[in-house]
Amino acid sequence: MAAADGVLPHVPESRAAVPTTSSRPRPAESRRQAAATRRKYQASSEAPPAKRRSETSFLPAKKSAAKETPRTLKGKAQKTFSPKRSSAGARDGNQERKPGIKTSSLFKNNPEIPELHRPVVKQVQEKVFTSDAFQALDLHPHLISTINTVFKMSSMTSVQKQSIPVLLEGRDALVRSQTGSGKTLAYCIPVVQSLQAMKSKIQRGDGPYALILVPTRELALQSFDTVQKLLKPFTWIVPGVLMGGEKRKSEKARLRKGINILIATPGRLVDHIKSTKNIHFRQIQWLILDEADRILDLGFEKDITVILNAVNAECRERQNVLLSATLTEGVTWLADISLHDPVSISVLDESHDQSNPKSKAIPEASPQAGDELDSFAIPASLEQYVTVVPSKLRLVSLAGFILQKCKFERDQKLIIFFSSCELVDFHYNLFLQTLLSGSGALAPGALPCASTRLKFLRLHGDLEQEERTAVFQEFSHSKTGVLLCTDVAARGLDLPQVTWIVQYNAPSSPAEYIHRIGRTARIGCHGSSLLILAPSEAEYVNSLASHKINVSEIKMEDILSVLARDDCFKGRRWGSQKRRSVGPQEIRERATVLQTVFEDYVHSSERTVSGAKKALQSFIRAYATYPRELKHIFHIRSLHLGHVAKSFGLRDAPKNLSALATKKKKANLKRPDLHRKTQSKQRLAEILRSEYSSGMETSVTKVREQNKRAGPGSQPRSAVRNQRPALAVGTN
Ligand SMILES: Nc1ncnc2c1ncn2[C@@H]1O[C@H](COP(=O)(O)OP(=O)(O)OP(=O)(O)O)[C@@H](O)[C@H]1O
């Protein structure tokens, strides 16, 4: 991760990833925009401030407030960015400001960044590897040789060493170990070993012997790939996947021919249980629920009940396994109804308690056990950071971080989590059009050396399945790049060599925090994560600490200081000057140039303005869905919506925002009974928002409507809608 010295040479970026937009300005228009940008920049921040502020701090000394001062949007927020207000900037020396030109007063009127008093807690840690070889297990020699040669693995991980023998003995199990510790093979190896050893050889037409349920389609594909590789020497056992996004008809055809190890997302399986005659569970010997807590979270309870009933109706004797890095108390319900006399395997137990793990019962739901269950192990090689950034500066800080990693450091692969599909789309388009050289609405002169080393990809549940799969594959195989995504990518995905996880919107639970950061530092590799919080959200650090999660602070100034190295953003005043040290004032100016670049793009057409407004609304709606226990930290009233609008490149906050934020509150006051009901609706929205939908209540309604149309038990919206041609995932 060594930082290269200075600006690295530009490699022409493939334009294939850059969508053509009908609103891209013509050259003359672009030149006009460039000139306007320069004029604005000159007007807004080139002149030195009347009072020199501390050279070490970016934020002006001002009346402080730990919270972002909430304001009603009418009038006040507008004032912040209005020409009238801007004229106040003249006190800072902005004498040349043209009437009507709105400027990006990024560093004014921000709330003070509070000191983070983070309690240092001892994180729970697990040992990843053991020195025991797979040969030590009683496995078929061809299976061992496949593990050694195809997977290129020799020694077992801790979770594999504990789980495989227990599962080979025929026991049910509840398995918890940290992210990226090898849980997939911990259950796949025993399944394959037991099925290949069956006395009467399995026939394809027998149907499923093992059923593996996973929450997302990408995870289904990934698990399918692992099973398929393990089955190389045992060609008579046929794996297959049902995951939505594929034509139901072709899935039915594959079911008819026979699938012996069936990997499915719950909704899609229920769909087949209800509509496909050929599906049966007479032979089932294994039922595996990977990411078991998420399967419950996603509101799949009903689906799981349908599946369990269908399987129980035809077969009672089978082994059941639940796995996750975060098996919380909620899973005990699932354990109760699906496991028989299970063994609880928790790798962190090994270091705490060397006594025989096999005899461990599932912890009772006592407060103490709850505490234990709510402290999650985090890979020792994962460094976690947090930065507190005022709302107005969020966008430039995120862009600064991306530039730092991708432009000035080598081999960086980043995943950035957002809370909704709209947020992903907005930032994806914005960065493509502004941070890549000559790629769009910006005048080429505005960013003469915009990075050509950047590659942006996006993944969320509203994309067509074909694109989802292509992005997943491309990012998997890529050495560098930035993946913008929702929580659809948070669970189970094994994307190699990811160096940084950025959480631009905080997760809705500690479990989701653990899974998001768990996309890096897998299987003993190094990795880092950054959580971006608003000043009013700083207390979230304590909430993480209560789950034994330790984060170190990175100062916003340190993130923005990358702009000192990036002459793309230098103002005219410094234009002709050769390399010299760049102080905080100039970094502030460069940040203003960058913000102006974003604002110019957003305001370059009606379409882009409306895209930004839509994303902002989506943000507000998603923000309203934080669970009750986090509401004191993430409450819309604590945010200055005008400042938040700035982080969407909007110069003025849309007028209807305050209505959006207060409508629900008023309604709740009128009908307290309804309020109680809407809490569970909110919970549903929270659950669905990042996985399959936009996080907007309307999306939840859409899901319901769509599901109604598609029939009960069908996959959520995107799964139903994206009926794509057959993927090459089955073996037929
Ligand atoms: N014994 C092993 N030796 C080396 N690498 C291994 C071993 N077992 C698994 N791996 C690799 O470790 C990585 C993580 O494995 P896996 O995806 O199964 O983790 P996980 O525990 O299921 O993670 P998550 O909780 O995020 O789903 C994979 O790339 C896998 O190939």
Rounded to an integer in angstroms, the radius of gyration calculated over CA atoms is 27 Å
Q: Count of DSSP helices?
A: 26
Distance between the termini: 44 Å
Helix content: 40-55%
Q: Can you tell me the overall shape?
A: elongated
Backbone structural class: alpha/beta
Please provide the count of β strands: 16
Main sheet record = 7 strands, parallel
Subcellular location: Nucleus, Nucleolus
Domain Helicase ATP-binding: 164-345
Enzyme class: hydrolase
Domain Helicase C-terminal: 381-560
Can you walk me through this structure?
By secondary structure, the protein is α/β, with parallel strands linked by helices. 42% of the residues lie in helices and 10% in strands. α15 runs antiparallel to α21. Adenosine-5'-triphosphate binds next to β2 and α6. Residues 1-112, 693-732 are annotated as: Disordered. It is found in: Nucleus, Nucleolus. Its EC number is 3.6.4.13.
Main attributes of the structure:
single chain; 732 residues; alpha/beta; 7-stranded parallel sheet; disordered N terminus; disordered C terminus; binds adenosine-5'-triphosphate
Strand and helix layout:
Elements: H1 27-46, H2 73-81, H3 83-88, E1 129-133, H4 141-149, E2 155-157, H5 158-168, E3 173-176, H6 183-196, E4 210-213, H7 217-230, E5 239-242, H8 248-257, E6 261-264, H9 266-275, E7 286-290, H10 292-314, E8 319-324, H11 331-338, E9 343-346, H12 347-352, H13 367-374, E10 382-388, H14 394-408, E11 413-417, H15 421-434, E12 456-459, H16 465-477, E13 481-485, E14 500-503, H17 510-517, E15 527-533, H18 540-545, E16 552-553, H19 556-560, H20 584-602, H21 606-623, H22 641-646, H23 657-670, H24 672-691, H25 697-710, H26 717-721
Helix pairs in contact: 1-20, 5-6, 6-7, 9-10, 15-21, 23-24
The chain binds adenosine-5'-triphosphate (ATP).
